[in-house]
Amino acid sequence: MNQVKKKVAFHTLGCKLNFAETSAISRLLPADRFEKTRISSEADIFVINTCSVTAAADKKCRQLVKKLIKQSPGAFVVVAGCYAQLRPEALASIEGVDLVLGTNEKFSLDEYLENISGREKPEIHVKRLTAEDPFNYAFSVDDRTRSFLKVQDGCDYCCSYCTVPLARGRSRNPSVETLVKEASFIASKGVKEIVLTGVNIGDFGKSTGETFTELLRELLKVEGIERYRISSIEPDLITDELLELASENKRIMHHFHIPLQSACDRTLRMMGRKYLREIFAGRVTKIKNLMPLAGIGADVITGFPGETEQDFEETYNFLKEMPVNYLHVFTFSERPGTKAEKMNEKVK
Question: Which of 59, 75, 192, 308 has its CA 20 to 30 A from that of 315?
Answer without folding.
Answer: 59
